[in-house]
Write a structure and sequence with these properties.
Radius of gyration: 15 Å
Strand content: 15-25%
Number of strands: 5
Mean pLDDT: 86
Largest sheet: 3 strands, parallel
Shape: elongated
Distance between the termini: 16 Å
Helix content: 25-40%
Number of helices: 3
Length: about 100
């Protein structure tokens, strides 16, 4: 919450889907501006990076590993994509 002589305003809530280079930069920028940030990435090892930037990690279990070669994310099966999209929709409704 921000208090000024003109009044007060609540912090913005932001969801970042995909915590690659640009997603992590979006998290850092939003946190510096005072937003409450939640983020999701299909790669399990990115959770630590999300939390280290001060965002809340959105847990999504899709039943398959999302890490491809070189640490990049790989394309998921159609069923896993549907599960991830459904979970992202439910989380967006909360925000």
């Amino acid at each position: 919450m921000m208090m000024t002589s003109a009044g007060s305003s609540k912090a913005c809530k932001l969801a970042v889907l995909g915590a690659g280079v640009a997603g992590l930069q979006a998290i850092a920028t939003a946190r510096r501006l005072g937003a409450q940030v939640e983020a999701y990435d299909i790669r399990a090892e990115v959770k630590e990076q999300i939390v280290s930037l001060g965002a809340k990690n959105i847990e999504v279990e899709v039943g398959e590993e999302g890490t491809g070669t070189g640490g990049y994310a790989k394309e998921l099966s159609e069923d896993a994509k549907a599960q991830a999209a459904s979970r992202a929709d439910r989380e967006a409704e909360k925000i």
